[in-house]
Amino acid sequence: MNGPLRIAIAQIDTLVGDADHNAERVIAHARRARDELGAHLVVFPELTLTGYPPEDLLLRPSMIRWCRDALERVRAEVDGIDVVLGLPWQDGAGLHNAAVVLRDGEVIARYAKMRLPNYAVFDEKRYFVAGRRPTVFECRGRRVGLTICEDIWDPEPARRAREAGAELLVNINASPFHRGKQQERIATLGQRVAETGLPIVYVNLVGGQDELVFDGRSIVMDAVGEVVWQGPAFAETLAVVEHPLPAGQAVHPETEQPPEREIYDALVLGVRDYVEKNGFPGALLGLSGGIDSALTLAIAVDAIGPERVEAVLMPSRYTAQMSIDDALAEAAALGVAHRTISIEPAFRAFLRMLEPAFTGLAPDTTEENIQARCRGIILMALSNKFGRLLLTTGNKSEMAVGYATLYGDMAGGYAPIKDVWKTLVYRLARYRNGIAPVIPERVLTRPPSAELAPNQKDSDTLPPYEVLDPILERFIEHDQSVEEIVAAGFDADTVKRVAIMVLRNEYKRRQAPPGVRITPRGFGKDRRYPITSGYHRYVRGH
Amino acid sequence: MNGPLRIAIAQIDTLVGDADHNAERVIAHARRARDELGAHLVVFPELTLTGYPPEDLLLRPSMIRWCRDALERVRAEVDGIDVVLGLPWQDGAGLHNAAVVLRDGEVIARYAKMRLPNYAVFDEKRYFVAGRRPTVFECRGRRVGLTICEDIWDPEPARRAREAGAELLVNINASPFHRGKQQERIATLGQRVAETGLPIVYVNLVGGQDELVFDGRSIVMDAVGEVVWQGPAFAETLAVVEHPLPAGQAVHPETEQPPEREIYDALVLGVRDYVEKNGFPGALLGLSGGIDSALTLAIAVDAIGPERVEAVLMPSRYTAQMSIDDALAEAAALGVAHRTISIEPAFRAFLRMLEPAFTGLAPDTTEENIQARCRGIILMALSNKFGRLLLTTGNKSEMAVGYATLYGDMAGGYAPIKDVWKTLVYRLARYRNGIAPVIPERVLTRPPSAELAPNQKDSDTLPPYEVLDPILERFIEHDQSVEEIVAAGFDADTVKRVAIMVLRNEYKRRQAPPGVRITPRGFGKDRRYPITSGYHRYVRGH
């Protein structure tokens, strides 16, 4: 036989909806894999040509045609190496989530994904019909079985590829990140290896796409279930592996890392790709002196550099001097330009304008919201005038219970920490300070406050975050009932009050900007709740 | 035999997520059907106990348990009549979208929906596994075949029910309205009757649920394909029909009506149910003197009555006296309270506050947006203080091209006309004026303007709506490509510019409030587009 098969893993960052751009990247990477790495085969992520997820662009016949045309370009412009790439493919049975193998101007094999995920953030049954047949192609005398993403989470597609003669499985992916996801992937691949005895080359997408971040970390697992190669996290790579593997090459690249690191890196990549792929010259945000905006600022700076980020301080009569000092210290520590615009003139104007309507009525959250919305107007005006993306700074705990002002602090195009529980915000801030101190210690220890009323503290209205967050996680991410949460040791009245707050604030979340998903259930496409609902009656009554 | 079977059609308005409430309504209607109508069988809409669509409430085990408990209540409290109702049902195969038949405390039959829609606004494959077997039960010697909604849009489930012995099909539905939907339903039922020779009792849900409106209009079609009974549109009913039908009873209740009527009625019911089911004491809106807010005001008044609606005039330096006069005339014609709050003090305050940042820069849309956002703050302050729902007044043409200000005129909880093209706004206004004149003629003939800059007109920025709307409808509702739209006679540059505006403004729509869907593709769950996308490059290049 011809010696080992050299397989290049192209862990790239595609752009959703731009088949020409993605085809150009395929061509460039394929040529590099051939010329620089001496690869015989190069493997790209799932739906390479559309990016992932293309969503309803898949319903446009022109999108499908564009992918065919882009495939033609790749076919015509690459030779001397086999190319595995993904694209939507229409045949008599319908539209498939497909992989094709190109060799010297010919499509030598085609595979249609058998398992279509239609849960969590996935809607693949909305677009695709499932494939029914395994595909095995030969490359330099080696028989390679093709599978696509979800296929590998089920025993059958891998088993059928082996029955069809595969000696090696290639699995192309667009597998989004959430905390701990890589461990799940490695365990699952281990099961498939145990069942089939076949090594697996698992190639994942990398990059941010609206609420999703794909973390890369492609995996090569040998026939005894060892991870022998792993791609970098949150970065592109083009690397080559051999089949069969040379003896003694098993490595364990996944060194033990703090869980904060992968989450922080996911947030940074999510923000960077949102800014870059949408063509923003930079970003801005309101810096309050609190922990949420401090962390968001650090993420933004790590994503796109301090010179492209602007911090805006917007004090009011309720802002403590300490908050201003801390905000200025954060901007200085990160090297970010800042400006200060007091909201008082506009706040006073609104109070006067509304005086006739509000005569005799006590101040309430209405007046708090006006302050937050004055800040929203200032930030949006700066965003409109200078073209920078406005980042919102709300965390998942706030989003969950509605402790945020629509069109106020919720105003903005992207919400970096909207899937980060408040207790995790603190952990991430400490993690970031461990790299270099950018957030004053006092910000991490002061009681959190929205500073919208005299001496206000979050704990006036909400349970302590150490109590609130685990209740929210159980109710939202694990669908636990009030009874189950109470049985885990939480106070029944608190649990009911929190659950009802979550249900009642669906209307706010519906109008929130997208942000990076880092949990198995964010407030995005993976949580689809009615606004109009009587379910809170169940919570109240049980 | 025992004479004809008397079937009661319970076309009711359920509340999503409240199984107890829905069970109570089932019990009350079943007793009335038995006692007042002498019915032997009463049929309720699809997923009666959860309402439709329950969305991710279905992922909560407690929701499924609650439905079981609610079913127990119905079982225990109704006798002397067979009850067909819908609920989610868990068995060994998974969760089903099911129908059960109750008789005197027993579940005598159960059916699992065979065809699960997973397109447009539907996500049923996210929750349910498909049933595989027909269900036929006997009631007073008549063999009734059960089907659920989507089942009837495909030949197989009806055919299999007939093969299993059915002499009559009952089809329970949660079929949302869009323009012309009833004609589609009647044509489809006609096909099933032609294939099976069986009469069909089609029972539909009625009511508004977030973006969806269910129009009722339940149908009884006889064995030769004649509509012999039709339920009212956009209203509840409990009525009885007989099987076999008495001779000579064929009727044609669907008299020819202007298409504007069903759309207007859908908008009214959507607003009413959103207000009532969410417990708002009333609604308010900004009344500009333009056609959009005039129509929205009329809809709101027709939905909940003039005494629960408030109009707010918010003039600026750019507001024409004519606009104020027309707005006052509209409020007076509809008997609605109004107040006037000039935005000038706040607008001037923001311009001064931003002067240092904007020195040397020409005014642009930034300053226009500040005005719209000052209005948003005033309206939201009134909404917060008095608890009334803020209605936004933007139409579908504006939503499509982004001719609206985020957190400005887009601020609000519900958007009654967000799925209504501007040209249809005019038609609906004329239709409403035909009932009683509530919108001054001048409002229908003036060139539309946002009045955010001197002598501004929509046509400064946008093509005339008579050109814009058909381009948008083709691009958005029919997924046509630029080439196809140009081939239909539109200017290529205009089509490209419009298409790119649509694609570029996805971020605004993502933060828009829900509103009534009246077309086959609204800007809601039935159009899922990426924000980050390079697809506009295809539009530009082709």
What does this entry show, briefly?
The structure is a homodimer. With about 550 residues, chain A is an alpha/beta fold.
Q: Could you characterize what this model shows?
A:
The structure is a homodimer of 542-residue chains. Chain A is of the alpha/beta class. Chain A folds into two domains: 5-255, Nitrilase/N-carbamoyl-D-aminoacid amidohydrolase; 262-459, HUPs (Rossmann fold, 3-Layer(aba) Sandwich), CATH 3.40.50.620. The first copy, chain A, has helices at residues 19-35, 61-77, 155-163, 181-196, 259-277, 291-304, 321-334, 344-358, 365-386, 396-401, 422-435, 441-445, 465-477, 482-487, 492-504, 506-510, 536-541, and strands at residues 5-11, 41-43, 82-91, 94-103, 106-112, 135-139, 142-148, 168-173, 200-204, 206-209, 212-215, 219-221, 227-230, 237-243, 283-286, 309-313, 337-340, 389-390. In chain A, a hairpin with a 2-residue loop joins β4 (94-103) and β5. In chain A, α5 (259-277) packs across α11 (422-435) and α6 (291-304) packs across α11 (422-435). The termini of chain A are far apart.
CATH architecture annotation name of the largest domain in chain A? 4-Layer Sandwich
CATH topology of the largest domain in chain A: Nitrilase/N-carbamoyl-D-aminoacid amidohydrolase
Distance between the termini of chain A: 69 Å
- What oligomeric assembly is this protein in? homodimer
Number of separate helices of chain A: 17
* Secondary structure category of chain A: alpha/beta
Arrangement of strands in the largest sheet of chain A: 5-4-3-2-1-14
Low-pLDDT regions of chain A: none
Biggest chain contact = A-B, 90 and 90 residues
Shape of chain A: elongated
Total discrete domains of chain A: 2
Beta fraction of the residues of chain A? 15-25%
